[in-house]
């Protein structure tokens, strides 16, 4: 069964700082990995989708990397802003085992960027 | 991009009544949709997979008679919480994927906050 872990659970940084969020998964049989953002009381907004054959994806100030063999992904946020404050979730789309065809989520990283 | 619309965003109902939540894919057809439940300060818990034209597949521990799922068209799935009780109060979120595989990722609705009084 796929297990996804995110570190740190919470992060508080001053505005302008570059930061890295970590995600690890136990089963490398994945189609892809997706990073989401969730604001309080809201649904999930997709940030980046990395296919299993890809090493990284970039969108604006966001860069996500994937090392499938070691079961790791990182989300890099450059020049953080207060508007980046949210919970960040990573999720694997699973290609095998009992989690086949489903998303498995990490517990999330709560990011606070203070002015 | 792909958009999933979920309604209502917030509902308060009396204990013992039923509540229906709708999930629509606005600009793509979704043969498969997913329903999640989220408790405060926790991640998403998959409740069931909704398949167009067939019965939903429920995760272990989820009561299928309490959480009725209907996926009657390629753009609409509904979740009905029957005989709701206060312990059913939660945040419910749906998602959909384009196509039969996960190649394009998943798109989520904005969620429904259910409060049972």
What does this protein look like?
The complex is a heterodimer of chains A (115) and B (117). With 115 residues, chain A is mostly beta strands. Chain A is 0% helix and 58% strand. Chain A has strands at residues 4-7, 10-14, 19-25, 30-38, 44-51, 56-59, 62-67, 72-77, 86-94, 103-105, 109-114. In chain A, a hairpin with an 8-residue loop joins strand 9 and strand 10 (103-105). Chain B has 117 residues and is mostly beta strands. Chain B is built from no helices and eleven strands. The mean pLDDT of chain B is 93. Chains A and B meet through strand 4, strand 5 and strand 9 of A and strand 5, strand 9 and strand 10 of B.
User: What would you call the quaternary organization?
Assistant: heterodimer
Low-confidence stretches of chain A: none
Q: Which class do the helix and strand fractions of chain B yield?
A: mainly beta
Distance between the termini of chain A: 41 Å
Separate helix tally of chain B? 0
In N-to-C order, the SSE pattern of chain A is EEEEEEEEEEE
Biggest beta sheet attributes of chain B: 7 strands, mixed
Largest interface (CB < 8 Å): A-B, 22 and 22 residues
Shape verdict of chain B: globular
Report Rg of chain A.
14 Å
Topology:
The complex is a heterodimer of chains A (115) and B (117).
Chain A: E1 4-7, E2 10-14, E3 19-25, E4 30-38, E5 44-51, E6 56-59, E7 62-67, E8 72-77, E9 86-94, E10 103-105, E11 109-114
Parallel strand pairs in A: 2-11
Antiparallel strand pairs in A: 1-3, 3-8, 4-5, 4-9, 6-7, 7-8, 9-10, 9-11
Chain B: E1 4-7, E2 10-13, E3 19-25, E4 32-38, E5 44-51, E6 57-58, E7 67-73, E8 76-81, E9 90-97, E10 106-108, E11 112-116
Parallel strand pairs in B: 2-11
Antiparallel strand pairs in B: 1-3, 3-8, 4-5, 4-9, 5-6, 7-8, 9-10, 9-11
What is this structure, in a nutshell?
The complex is a heterodimer of chains A (115) and B (117). Chain A is an all-beta fold and 115 residues long.
């Amino acid at each position: 069964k796929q297990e996804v872990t995110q570190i740190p659970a919470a992060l508080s940084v001053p505005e302008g700082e570059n930061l890295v969020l970590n995600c690890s998964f136990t089963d490398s049989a994945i189609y892809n990995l997706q990073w989401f953002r969730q604001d309080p009381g809201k649904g999930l907004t997709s940030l980046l989708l990395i296919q299993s054959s890809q090493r990284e994806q970039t969108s604006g100030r966001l860069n996500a990397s994937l090392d499938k063999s070691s079961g790791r992904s990182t989300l890099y946020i450059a020049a953080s802003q207060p508007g980046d404050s949210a919970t960040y979730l990573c999720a694997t789309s699973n290609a095998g085992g009992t989690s086949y065809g489903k998303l498995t989520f990490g517990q999330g990283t709560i990011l606070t960027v203070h002015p | 991009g792909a958009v999933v619309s979920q309604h209502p965003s917030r509902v308060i109902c009396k204990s013992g009544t039923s509540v229906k939540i709708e999930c629509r894919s606005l600009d793509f057809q979704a043969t498969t949709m997913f329903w999640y439940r989220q408790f405060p300060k926790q991640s998403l818990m998959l409740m069931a997979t909704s398949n167009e034209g067939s019965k939903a597949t429920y995760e272990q521990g989820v009561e299928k008679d309490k959480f009725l799922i209907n996926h009657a068209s390629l753009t609409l799935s509904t979740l009905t919480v029957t005989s709701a009780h206060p312990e059913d109060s939660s945040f419910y979120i749906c998602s959909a994927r384009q196509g039969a595989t996960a190649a394009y990722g998943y798109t989520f609705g904005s969620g429904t906050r259910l409060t049972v009084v």
